[in-house]
TrEMBL record:
Residues 216-315 form the Fe2OG dioxygenase domain. InterPro entries: DIOX_N, IPNS-like_FE2OG_OXY, IPNS-like_sf, Oxoglu/Fe-dep_dioxygenase_dom. Transmembrane segments: none annotated. PANTHER family: 1-AMINOCYCLOPROPANE-1-CARBOXYLATE OXIDASE HOMOLOG 1-LIKE (PTHR10209:SF429), OXIDOREDUCTASE, 2OG-FE II OXYGENASE FAMILY PROTEIN (PTHR10209). SUPFAM superfamilies: Clavaminate synthase-like (SSF51197). Keywords: Dioxygenase, Iron, Metal-binding, Oxidoreductase, Vitamin C. Belongs to the iron/ascorbate-dependent oxidoreductase family. One of its GO terms (molecular function) is oxidoreductase activity, acting on paired donors, with incorporation or reduction of molecular oxygen. This is Non-heme dioxygenase N-terminal domain-containing protein.
Amino acid sequence: MDILNNLRENRTKQVKAFDDTKSGVKGLIDAAASGLVDIPRIFIRPTDELAEDLELNRTSLQVPAIDLTGVGDKGGSRRKIVEEVKHAAENWGFFQVVNHGVPIKVLQDMLNGVREFHEQDVEIKKEYYSRDPERMVKFNSNYDLYMSRAANWRDTLIIDLLNTYHLDPQHLPSVCRESTVEYLNYLTKLVDTLFELLSEALGLEPNHLKLLECEKGRSLACHYYPACPKPDQTLGLNKHTDASFITILLQDEVQGLQVMHQNQWADVEPIPGALVVNIGDLLQIISNDKFKSVIHRVFGNVALTRTSVACFFHGVATPPKIYGPIEKVITEECPQMFREFTVIDYMMKFQSRGLDEKSGLNYVRL
C-alpha cells in the first residue's frame, strides 16, 4: 500500500509540475532543444489499457457520409436524407455531412486560427491558461489532468457558452477571433437543420428537438495534437462518449479519430470539406435509447500535428430545465429506459470524473 501511495504522490507532483509550466504539451516539445525523444511518464498509458487495445480489432468499415444536397426539398431528397440520418444515428452514432452550407474558406480559416493560437508565443497563451470552470475562454492541457490515469497528448482552447447565449468577440484571442465568430454563425443554421432531420428520424415533427431547445448552451473545444515521438504509448484523447445532445466536429486532413463500432475501432477518414456529427449522451437519453452515443477516441501521429474543433450542443443549463425521454418514443415494446435529468447536473457529474471512466449514462439509466 505504501508503494502505491508513493506512486500516486509522485504522479501528483509530476502532473502539478507540468501544469505549473502553463505551456501545455506544445511547451514540452518547444523546451526540448534537440527534439523530444521520449514522453514524460504522466502521459504513458497503464499496461492493462494497452493490453486491452491489443484484443480489439480494427475494421475497414467507414462511418456513413451523408450529402445534404436537397435537404430543403419536401420530397424524395429529404426523405432519403432522413433515412440515412436515422440509420447512422441508430447504428453508428456518427456520420459525416457534405454540402452542409458552411463554405470551405470558413472551415479552413477556423482551423488556421486554432493552429495559430496554439503555435504563437507561449507567453501570450499563458494569459489564457486556467482551470477555472467559471472562465468562459481558457487554454489548458487535459481538463481532467488531475483525475485521469494517464494524461493525453493534446492542448485545448476552450470557449464555454454553457451558461450564456451571448459571446462577446472581445473575449476571444485576437488571432482566431474573426474566424471563430464566423464559424459559429454558420453552425447556428446547420445545427437547426440537423435537429430537424433527427426529429423526423424519430418520427416526430421537424421542430420537436428545436422546441426542447437542444441547440442552446454550446461549448467549443479547439484541440491541438502535436506530433508525438511515442504515439503507441499514449493517446491524443481517451475513449469516451460526449455529454451533449450532438457534437459537430471540424477536423483537418490528419487522421486520428476512431469510433467503436461492433466492438471494433473504425477510423473516421477525413473528407475534404466535411463535418463530423455524433450523437451525445443527452440525445440517447431523450430518444429513449433509439439513437446511440458511442465511444470514440483520438490517437497520435509520430510526424504530423493534428487540429480539430468540436462544438458541443448541451441544451438549456441555466435556469435548470428538466429533460427526459420523449413521451412519443416510449412504447409498450420500448418502455422508458432513463429517468429525467438537468443538463447542469449531468455536466457536473461528467466533469467530476476522468474522461476515461465509464459512460455517464449510468447516472440516469433506470
